[in-house]
Amino acid sequence: MRVRALEALPGRVLAPLLLAVFALVGAGLNYLLQAEAFHELVATEQQVRLTEILNSEQTRLEVQIGLGNVLEVSRQVASLGLRSGITHALLVHRDGRVTAAMSRTQVGWPLTEAIAAEPPAIRAGLLEIATYDPKGIRTLLPPGDECLLAQVAVYPDHKLIVRADLEPALSARMSLGRAELLRETFLILLFAALLAILLHVLWFRRTAQLTAAVRAIGTGRLDARTGLSGRDELAQIGIAVDRMAADVEARQAKLQRLSALIDRSPVVAIEWRNEPGWPISFVSESVSQWGYTVEELLADGARYADLIHPDDLPQLEANVTRRAVEGPDDYLYEYRLRDARGNWVWLEARTWLTRDAIGAISMFHGVLVDVTTRKLAENALREQADLLRLFYDLPFIGMAITSPTTQRWLTANDRLCEILGYPRDELVQKTWLELTHADDAAADLAQFERVMRGEIDGYRMDKRFLRKDGAVVFTMLDVRAVRSDDGAVDYLVATVQDVTERKRGELALQLHKERLERAEAHAKLGSWEIDLQTEQVWWSAQMYVLLGADPALDSPGVATFMRFIHSEDRERLLEVYDRLLAGRLSDVEPFRSNAEHGPLRWFRATMYIESDEHGQPRRAYGTLLDVTALKDGEEALRALNATLEARVVQRTQQLEDANRELASFSYAVSHDLKGPLRGIDGYSQILQEDYRDRLDDEGRQLLANIRRGVAQMHELIEDLLAYSRLERRPLDSAVVAVPGLVHEVLDGFAHDIATTGADIRVDLPALELSLDRKGLALVLRNLIGNALKFSAAASPPQIEIGARVEGGRARLWVRDNGIGFDMKYHDRIFEIFQRLHRAEHYPGTGVGLALVRKAIQRMGGTVRAESEPGRGATFFVEFPR
């Protein structure tokens, strides 16, 4: 009902109304989408703002905690409530107790009890963000609560948890969106009103004019016109309607002229109903040529079927029955009709059908042409056509009649002209001997002479002709002589079949066979085939060579094959053959030849089964490969493996002894060296603390040098032990997500990065590697640590971490803009205890890059560096994927 109500509205009202409705709905949907976008935008803005606040507060809190200023820490945490949107701030100790908060009542309590009074949504969000590990700044948008939660680690054992309410910022954004929606709604309604006015002026007034003209044309006034002009769609419709009216008017006049012309022409137009006897419902005046009047054919009792020849009527009825089902509804047919004098007239009838609503034939329409004269002429030419039909009924075979005296072609069909490349008028000017290949001319001429002498009546041969373009055509020629009563040859009838493609295929097949035999001989591979129904066997030539059989004496067969197989392997192969006859395939282990027929050989066989259209096994086929060299190689390899295994056992024992010695050395270093070192460190510390005032400046300096040397010695021993333990530590291979590990390592350097102000750029694809996670973390820590250390003097320090996969290998790199080094020291920097700079300038023991190289080598990778003095350095690490 609502759709009909809309249809009742005029277009000048409906179009602006629908446009306004659709635009308002679109504006409303856009507002809903913008509301979701506002939520995401506010969350992103507040996340950036909260991250900046926590970055600032983290540093300030770490300074105050380091100074032990508890009151300042509490004041600083409480002051976070002055920042817009922040509703909660809690400084939580590692043991889970709140040490500072915006509310004093929460201080000193465990976190769960301190926030017990909060609403469930706020309490759940604070507990969830508190469970994250304190690495860097973490943010969380909890479901069901319009807020943003954040956590930051505060050195050394605190974390700061903050909750910011998003509702005020979101309300401001939504208010702007509603104002924009009201503006858009007003503009849409204004635009709809202007459009209604414009449509009335430019469109609907002219539409009424077009409607009136179409209504007049529909009532039969074909001279009516719309009178519209212009280039818009309505004008084009009006012009098309005017053109249609003019065309219909012209067609009507033409039909009137055609009707008069048909009445005066030999063509008879007729219609009959699809009822018993086919009563006639219309016939043109031109039927008078057969002695009938229109009135007597339209009178009651006149039936069209009564005028049709009795021999033609059944075929005509069968044709109508078939076309009623299959179509087409427009066809041409010939039959005989009785004229008023009783004579039979041949008609060519163009007939088309009219069907009712259910598809049944209701009316026949026909145009009848008298073709009696043509039929008589066709009968007169039938005998001559029978003679020529031979040349045209076989379109795939060339045919010709040749003279026995001049050897010229008297006539030829189109196919022969196509085969030889000559038009018929040129071909009949040549003899068949002229177009015969020189190598076949003598044989053809000899057979021709035998026909002429009466020895044979015809012959057949393979013969090559020369085409007009010079190409050679391979043909099958059949010649037959037509003789007179006295036995003389009147003419020769020749058939020529083009077999060029077949000949080329045979030559190609022969070439392919020769190539296959050469390939099998080169590969020492034979092929075979068995008909599973008749058990008939076929072998390739190489099968005889492999078995040592004689093709002249040994016919292909299972018994013959088994005779050339080692006696110990025959029973196994016979079982395989029985399964093959049953249509089942099985694996065939290598087997041996019979040494009585030649040198002992090892063979490997392949088998396949082909089934017929019913799924029954039809034939089996496969190959026989000489694998003697492979078996000899396996034996040699087995002996070599035994020798290698003995060597491996010996070297493994030596390696275990070396590892035990290394473990003893590591223990000695850690126990025997670190013990005295701890004593030196302890006594020097006592001397520094208790006797510092009794020493002069030089003595205090010497004591400081002693303690610095002890610290360096301790660090050197620890790095040496780490280097020795790295070799003995088992590899724990697993799938490692490289981007996540890189960010985890960077979190460990967060303080150094913040202190130096380094610019860290990470460009990593979603790369996963299967290797030792601890080993890769060790490599990344040392490379990133070196980059931070040697670029600390740059302004600012810039470090790039990237990766790329190419050529089946994964490459990672760490690039800095530090002091760099000379490439002539490239290999030296990866050696243990090797340094290029003084320790007081760049602290370290010279073990870091040695650990990097050792860890990468154990994981199957490589490491290299590229650098120039003063232009930074890039370290490349590559692993196979």
What does this structure look like?
The chain has 881 residues and is an alpha+beta fold. Helix content is 49%, strand content 22%. It contains 23 helices and 27 strands. Strand 9 (344-355) and strand 10 form a beta hairpin. It is flat.
List keywords for this structure.
881 residues, alpha+beta, Beta-Lactamase, five-stranded antiparallel sheet, 23 helices, 49% helix
Strand percentage: 15-25%
pLDDT under 50 segments (min length 5)? Answer: none
Kindly give the count of domains: 6
Major beta sheet, strand line-up = 2-1-5-4-3
- Output mean pLDDT: 80
Helix count, per DSSP?
23
Q: From the alpha-carbon coordinates, what is the Rg to the nearest angstrom? A: 53 Å
Anisotropy-based shape: flat
Q: End-to-end span in angstroms? A: 69 Å
Structure, briefly:
With 881 residues, the chain is α+β, with helices and mostly antiparallel strands. A hairpin with a 5-residue loop joins strand 9 and strand 10.
List the helices and strands and how they pair.
Elements: H1 2-8, H2 11-67, H3 70-78, E1 86-93, E2 98-101, H4 111-114, H5 120-130, E3 137-140, E4 147-154, E5 158-165, H6 167-218, H7 233-263, E6 268-273, E7 280-283, H8 294-298, H9 313-326, E8 330-338, E9 344-355, E10 361-370, H10 372-392, E11 398-402, E12 409-412, H11 414-420, H12 424-427, H13 438-452, E13 458-466, E14 472-483, E15 489-498, H14 500-523, E16 525-531, E17 537-539, H15 541-547, H16 558-563, H17 567-581, E18 591-592, E19 602-611, E20 617-626, H18 628-690, H19 697-728, E21 733-737, H20 738-748, H21 750-756, E22 759-763, E23 768-772, H22 773-790, E24 798-806, E25 809-816, H23 848-858, E26 862-867, E27 873-880
Parallel strand pairs: 22-24
Antiparallel strand pairs: 1-2, 1-5, 3-4, 4-5, 6-7, 6-10, 8-9, 9-10, 11-12, 11-15, 13-14, 14-15, 16-17, 16-20, 18-19, 19-20, 21-23, 24-25, 25-27, 26-27
Helix pairs in contact: 2-3, 2-6, 6-7, 18-19, 19-23, 20-22, 22-23
